[in-house]
Design brief:
mainly alpha, 86% helix
């Protein structure tokens, strides 16, 4: 397998791989923090917000990498990079959609 095809596959799949990791981290941390008795719940909320911010920064960084990569490639490869960018942005929206309830709604 050529190096370019591996990087193309990573660009296409990376956003939703990040989403799945973030989803598992959000709800795993939520369940773990709810099982531990924390006074007031402020610490629990702080950890969840930190996870959410880290996930969003990872997604934005990944989308930026895909966009920067697409600007330097001609022809059909640029079309592939536009699709990869659309998938990365869709994964960012999915992370926002699945992560906000953990932060916004009352936990536990």
């Amino acid at each position: 397998m050529r190096r370019g095809s591996v990087v193309d596959a990573a660009a296409l799949l990376g956003g939703f791989v990040l989403w799945s990791i973030a989803f598992a981290a959000f709800y795993g941390a939520h369940g773990l923090l709810c099982s531990v008795d924390l006074a007031g719940g402020f610490e629990r909320r702080l950890v969840l917000v930190a996870l959410f911010v880290a996930a969003m920064l990872a997604h934005v960084g990944f989308a930026w990498w895909v966009a920067a990569r697409g600007r330097t490639r001609p022809g059909a490869a640029a079309g592939l990079d536009r699709i990869a960018l659309a998938l990365a942005l869709a994964a960012l929206a999915a992370t926002l959609w699945s992560g906000l309830p953990v932060i916004v709604l009352k936990s536990c």
